[in-house]
Amino acid sequence: MPEPPILDEAxxxxxxxxxVERPDAILEAAHRRLQPExxxxxxxxxxxxxxxxxxxxxxxxxRDPLAMANRRALLARLCVALSRPGVDGVLGTADILxxxxxxxxxxxxxxxxxxxxxxxAGTSFEVDDRFTAYSAQAVQRMGWQGGKMLLRIDxxxxxxxxxxxxxxxxxxxxxxxxxxxMVEPFIAHxxxxxxxxxxSRDAVVRSCTVAAGLGGTSAYTWLKxxxxxxxxxxxxxxxxxxxxxxxxVSDDQExxxxxxxxxxxxxxxxxxxxxxxxxxxxxxxxPSAVDAAAGLIR
Length: 298
Fold this sequence. Notes:
The chain has helices at residues 9-21, 25-32, 71-82, 94-102, 136-142, 159-176, 201-212, 231-235, 253-263, 276-279, 286-297; strands spanning 46-51, 89-92, 110-114, 146-153, 180-191, 194-197, 221-225, 242-245, 269-274. By secondary structure, the chain is of the alpha/beta class. The protein has one domain (9-297): Aldolase class I (TIM Barrel), CATH 3.20.20.70. It is globular and about 50 Å long.
């Protein structure tokens, strides 16, 4: 099994030192950053690596409950992923994105900022997913390309209503700035006290139709949807562009890639946003996992 990539000591120490001695360097680097030519390339496709799980306290990848707990190792894996051909950019929270920015990994990359991380994994208030990360104003200030929000719709949890309203306001605030709003919806239920997403076809269809209608305009809205059985029926439920999420790490990596390939044949499916499945593949080979996913897009 390949050894996990590790940031060398000099780069890691330099990153920490900059944060201590020159916090203004973050915004300075953001203003100097080479911007991508557009959200999508000439092929109209988008390939992003997701890295916002840790901010919800969701550190598991595969069988390791603390896989993402080592920030240096996580950043090293992200650096490897972002350096591979065909990877357009990254989705993350401020701490991750600023680390990558200071490491010089976001030049010319599409950056989508994670906005609501208040629904911490495993808590009683998980569905009350407040916007504790980026605001639309902060996304614009940093020069990122858009914001992403998670929307769990639990028919039995009244907190769903406030989360719906907050997401609608975020869609409007991003649209006012001509920034992408990437909405990730799920129908969810509590099972033995824990929130579980319903990945049946009908539930995903319902969630995406609700998400598509948020806000006063859908001009800048993209949907981020799981790949489920009968995915064509899901994609036929909306005219909005869709990126497919990677989900949990699977022992059947070939089967996962095959499912992505089938879904990407639909014209609404415009890309992939994958995190743990690429950063922590079962065989530990990050470059090969990233290349296999990027090959589906490009």
